Amino acid sequence: MRTFGNLVVRGLLVGLFAGLLAGAFAYVTGEPHIDAAIAIEEAGGAAHTHGDSHDTSTEAAPADEEEPLVSRSGQRAGLFLATALYGVALGGIFAVGFTLLRRRLRTTNDSYAALGLAAAGFVGIVLVPFLKYPPNPPAVGDPETITKRTVSYLLTLVIGLLAIWAGVAASRWAARFGEAPWIRLGVGGAALLATVVAAYLVLPAINEVPGSFPATLLWQFRFASLGTQAVLWTLIGFGYAALVDRRVPSKSESEVVAA
């Protein structure tokens, strides 16, 4: 018999596994782009300092460079710890959400319910915020606007979840007019899209990437970040679907057990 604690433990284990693999994906696809962005920032800072030294005085002493609190080697190692902890937390939240919403998910198959919940979570929590505020490399951005950017991003998270709710509600409402899947999918998708577009028009636009920053490098980093989230949510969805799968024994299997 599956209890609430049992379901949560399964979510934590799946989240840990997914977080470690997502960390490996981020290490391979994202870290080289972060190093390249930091190199561009350091090159720009060195050129600026060199220019200032010629403008002021040749006797000026070079400014001391601020040492980072954590070295790049430490940051790379900490990446796996961060994604593992994030995966565990997300897996636990996913399991709690699955337990609370299971009866409202109109399918008798637990695996389909887990996959549907993971897909909805990825769209609402990852994809909707990404399309409005795509992430930038650590060396890009104005530190003075971090509060504004954080609040705006959190708003997109809430809006993403509201958009999912609007899509599901509209899809169920459309079921009154026919059982054809395209009707429900079309109406639900339109409600989700309308909510997202309306929110995008209201939320402020934030673009602090310098025009001189390489566009190819910027989008490689962004796609690596999106890919990391996709790996995490995909593994959580499929992993949890496998762990909660309850097969109905076939007639022959039941006869064997009874014998």
Tags for this entry?
259 residues, mainly alpha, 2 domains, 8 helices, Putative cobalt transporter CbtA, CbtA_put, membrane, transmembrane helix, transmembrane
Write the layout of secondary structure elements.
Blueprint: H1 4-29, H2 31-55, H3 72-101, H4 110-132, H5 146-174, H6 181-202, H7 215-243, H8 251-258
Short description:
The protein is built from eight helices and no strands. It has 259 residues and is mainly α.
Detailed description of the structure:
InterPro entries: CbtA_put. This is Putative cobalt transporter CbtA. Keywords: Membrane, Transmembrane, Transmembrane helix. The chain contains 8 helices and no strands. It is globular and about 65 Å long. 74% of the residues lie in helices and 0% in strands. The protein folds into 2 domains: 1-42 and 74-140 and 212-248, no CATH class; 142-208. It has 259 residues and is mainly α. The chain starts with a helix and ends with a helix. Mean pLDDT is 84; it is low at 56-63 and 249-259.
Percent of sequence in beta strands: under 5%
Indicate the radius of gyration in whole angstroms. Answer: 24 Å
| Biggest β-sheet description | none
Query: Treating each run of at least 4 consecutive H or I residues as one helix, how many helices?
Result: 8
Q: Average pLDDT, to the nearest integer? A: 84
Helix and strand pattern = HHHHHHHH
The helix content is over 70%
What best-fitting shape do the alpha-carbon axes yield?
Answer: globular
- How many domain regions? 2
Number of strands: 0
Unreliable segments (pLDDT under 50, ≥5 consecutive)? 56-63, 249-259
Pfam families: CbtA (PF09490)
Transmembrane segments: 7-28, 77-100, 112-131, 151-170, 182-203, 223-243
Keywords: Membrane, Transmembrane, Transmembrane helix
Protein name: Putative cobalt transporter CbtA
